[in-house]
Amino acid sequence: MIGLIEMFARPLLRMLDPEDAHRLAIHALKFPPYVKLVADDPRLAVRAFGLNFPNPLGMAAGFDKHAEVPDALLKLGFGFVEVGTVTPAPQSGNPRPRVFRLPRDRGVINRLGFNSEGAAAVLRRLAARANAGGIVGVNIGANKESTDRIADYVRLIETFAPVVSYFSVNISSPNTPGLRELQQARMFDDLLARVMDARARMSREAGTTPVLIKIAPDLTLNELDDLVGGARRHRVDGMIIGNTTLARPPGLRDQATASEAGGLSGRPLFALATRMLAETYVRVEGAFPLIGVGGIDSGETALAKIRAGACLIQLYSALVFHGLRLVAGIKSELSDALRRDGHAGIDELVGADAAAMTAEKWPT
Ligand SMILES: Cc1cc2nc3c(=O)[nH]c(=O)nc-3n(C[C@H](O)[C@H](O)[C@H](O)COP(=O)(O)O)c2cc1C
User: Fold this and answer.
1) C-alpha closest to that of 204 among 264, 240, 161, 247
2) Closest to 218 in 3D by CA, of 275, 160, 178, 167
3) d(CA 169, CA 85)
4) Which of 29-38, 207-216, 334-343 has the least mean pLDDT?
5) Which of 315, 299, 305 shows the shortest CA–CA distance to 350?
6) What is the pLDDT of residues 277-314, one digit of tens each?
7) Which of 209, 267, 307, 321 has the lowest CB atom count within 10 Å?
8) What are the phi and psi torsion angles at 42 (to 5°)?
9) Helix runs in the chain, H state only
10) Which pLDDT does position 133 carry in this prediction?
11) Which atom of ligand 1 is nearest to the CA of 114?
C-alpha cells in the first residue's frame, strides 16, 4: 500500500518546491494508510539510555519539527522519532526559498533557521500523545533573538521533561548565527552545567529524562576532544553525530545549487559524518552511547555507521529520494546481515571498525 501510494506521489512531490512537498507529506501522514504492523526482528532491538528501542532506525530531527506526526512515523516502522527543533517562542526562520535538492548528488541543502511553532504548541501535541507509547524525543534549540541562549535550553527542558523520552540538545545548527559557539569549551561547560541541573530538578516529577548532545560534523579534532571531555565530566547520556555540514566536498555534481548557503546533508555528508562518529567513539571509550546520522540511504550505509560506533542511527535526506519504503528496506538488510554473520544483536558490531577508520586518510 505504501509502495503504491509512493509510486504515484513521489514523482509529483519532486516537481514541487522542496518545502511545499514536505508540507504535503506531513499532511498525508496525518491520514496514514492502513499499515499492518509487522513486529521487528528481535535481533534489531537495542537498549540505550535506559530505553528499549524495537529497532535502531530513527527519524532525524527536522522532518517533524512541530510534532504533528510522530505516531504515524512510529507506525511506519521507525524505532524512534526525534521531533523538533523546537524553540521556546514561535519564530518563522529564514526567508524562502530555503531548502534545495541536489538530485544528482542525492543531497539536500537547507537554511531553514529554526522555523518553529514554539514550545506551547508542540507541548500540547506531545502531552496529548504522552501515554501512546513509542520512543519520541525532542530536539531543542534557542530563539534567534534570545539574549540568554542557555536559559532557552533550560526552559525547554523544564517544559518537555514530563512528555518526552529523551532530549537532543541542538548546538550544531549552522543556520542560527552564533549557535555553534555553544560548542566552544567554556560555553559548552556552562551549557551542560545548567542543562543537567534542570534535568535533575525535573527528575522529581518527570523521572530522569536522558539528555543527548547533537554536534556538528565540522569540528576540529581538538574541539572534539574538549566536547567529549565536557560531556563525560557532566555525565550526559549520549551524543548525536551529527548535524548538517557547512563544507562542500569537491566533486559535487549539482554545482549551481551547491553554492546555496546552508547545511548540506544526504549522501555527500556520509564520509565526513561517519569519520567524526568514529573519532567520537574512540574518545568516549564506552562512557555513553552514540547515535549516528548523516547520509544513511541503505542497509550498507546503516551498517557502516554501526561499525563506526553508533548503536542507534537516524536519517532524513534519503527519504526525499527514496521515500518511506526505505525504512523497511534498511531494517530487513540489517536483519539479513546479522543473521548471515551469526550475530545475536546490533551491540556485537558497534564500533567494530572505529579504530581502523580513525587511522585512514581524512575523507574529502
Ligand atoms: C530540511 C532539513 C531540516 C533539518 N532540520 C533540523 C532541525 O531542525 N534540527 C536538527 O537538529 N537537525 C535538522 N536537520 C539535520 C538532520 O536531523 C540530520 O542531522 C542531517 O540532515 C543529516 O542526516 P541525513 O543525511 O540523513 O539527512 C535538518 C535536515 C534537513 C535536510
Assistant:
1) 161
2) 275
3) 9
4) 29-38
5) 305
6) 999 999 999 999 999 999 999 999 999 999 999 999 99
7) 321
8) -55, -25
9) 2-15, 18-29, 70-75, 119-128, 149-160, 185-206, 221-233, 255-258, 270-284, 299-308, 317-322, 325-340, 354-358
10) 94
11) 8
